[in-house]
């Protein structure tokens, strides 16, 4: 089976692409082959899907972006994959071939889509290239002839137009599968390459990734952790107090850095966040904390238990008489203690 997945190369890969790539990896079987289409020609026009304004045409450092895309996809994607550039056939194409496809569709079908219709009604600029974009995308399918094409839900209209064109020019039927899109860091809209503040790029610095994650809304961090459960080896999520939300963000950052295979020599450089080992005493929490000189009075520990600030193995601790074991994890405010 030939599976097609394509992106425009106007920017590098971001967290949303990683989410879709990992879903594709689960979907694929042993004999399947993924053709990763690099839209180095179509990126100069830009996909009009879910856009309120037209995209200005300028130099995107396409060659540099292609290198980073190939680098990171080869790291994350472990199954068979081939990279193709659509400029390979668009540069040498005759105008007669494109004209045949243009004559098949009426202008109404291309303008009916909401994003372009709203812009025309509000007297906003619409470029002819944006209207013709889905036709160019369908031409990719006429050359590759995939069995399955995968994409986000924003590609729904583009998929419909490619279906119509394929019926006329080829006998082969392509199955189209849509995936749910990842939301932006600060907004409920899809994570977009054009909004740099709203997405995490895979080639971002560790500092940039850290501060972007730290600025995520406290309630929204749970959304990202639930989406990336299959990638995060160690994660915690609590709904109790602000300190725990902060811890959750730091854990998410730490795991994302590991996934991206970036080096962080000193994790405390980003935040005063320490993991200490403490000795077990009488299988009691209060005794262990006092004898290890973390607290000096029992009243302090009882007060923190009432305030719901102590967690044992990622669960809120309410009973002070509960027995603890070796390798248990205690989280108190911003600090983590491992019992040994």
From TrEMBL:
**Per UniProt, which keywords does this protein have?**
Aminoacyl-tRNA synthetase, ATP-binding, Ligase, Nucleotide-binding, Protein biosynthesis, RNA-binding
One GO cellular-component annotation of the UniProt record comes to: cytosol
| Enzyme Commission number(s) from the entry | 6.1.1.1
Q: Name one GO biological process term.
A: tyrosyl-tRNA aminoacylation
- What enzyme category does the UniProt record give? ligase
Xref: InterPro entries: aa-tRNA-synth_Ic, Rossmann-like_a/b/a_fold, S4_RNA-bd_sf, Tyr-tRNA-ligase, Tyr-tRNA-ligase_bac-type
List the Gene Ontology MF annotations in alphabetical order: ATP binding; RNA binding; tyrosine-tRNA ligase activity
Reactions catalysed, as given in the entry: tRNA(Tyr) + L-tyrosine + ATP = L-tyrosyl-tRNA(Tyr) + AMP + diphosphate + H(+)
Matching entries from PROSITE patterns are given as:
S4
User: Does the record's keyword annotation contain Transferase?
Assistant: no
- Family designation: Belongs to the class-I aminoacyl-tRNA synthetase family.
Task: Provide the protein name.
Answer: Tyrosine--tRNA ligase
Instruction: Name the species this protein comes from.
Output: Candidatus Vidania fulgoroideorum
């Amino acid at each position: 089976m030939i599976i097609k997945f394509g992106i425009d190369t106007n920017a590098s890969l971001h967290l949303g692409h990683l989410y879709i790539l990992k879903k594709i990896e689960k979907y694929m079987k042993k004999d399947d082959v993924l053709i990763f289409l690099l839209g180095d020609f179509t990126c100069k026009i830009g996909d009009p899907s879910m856009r309120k304004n037209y995209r200005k045409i300028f130099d995107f450092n396409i060659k540099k972006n292609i290198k980073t895309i190939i680098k990171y996809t080869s790291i994350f994607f472990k199954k068979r994959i081939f990279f193709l550039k659509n400029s390979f056939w668009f540069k040498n194409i005759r105008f007669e071939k494109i004209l045949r496809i243009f004559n098949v569709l009426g202008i109404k079908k291309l303008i009916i889509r909401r994003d372009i219709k709203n812009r025309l009604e509000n007297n906003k600029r619409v470029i002819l290239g944006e209207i013709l974009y889905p036709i160019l995308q369908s031409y990719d399918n006429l050359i590759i002839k995939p069995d399955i094409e995968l994409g986000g839900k924003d590609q729904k209209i583009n998929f419909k137009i490619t279906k119509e064109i394929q019926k006329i020019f080829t006998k082969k039927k392509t199955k189209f599968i849509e995936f749910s899109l990842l939301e932006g860091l600060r907004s409920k809209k899809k994570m977009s390459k054009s909004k740099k503040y709203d997405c995490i790029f895979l080639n971002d610095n560790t500092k940039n990734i850290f501060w972007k994650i730290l600025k995520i809304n406290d309630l929204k961090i749970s959304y990202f952790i639930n989406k990336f459960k299959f990638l995060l080896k160690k994660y915690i999520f609590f709904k109790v107090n602000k300190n725990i939300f902060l811890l959750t963000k730091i854990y998410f950052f730490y795991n994302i850095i590991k996934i991206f295979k970036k080096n962080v020599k000193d994790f405390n450089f980003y935040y005063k966040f320490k993991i200490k080992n403490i000795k077990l005493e009488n299988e009691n929490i209060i005794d262990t904390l006092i004898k290890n000189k973390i607290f000096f009075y029992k009243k302090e520990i009882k007060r923190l238990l009432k305030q719901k600030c102590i967690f044992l193995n990622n669960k809120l601790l309410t009973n002070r008489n509960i027995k603890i074991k070796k390798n248990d994890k205690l989280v108190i405010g911003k600090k983590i203690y491992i019992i040994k």
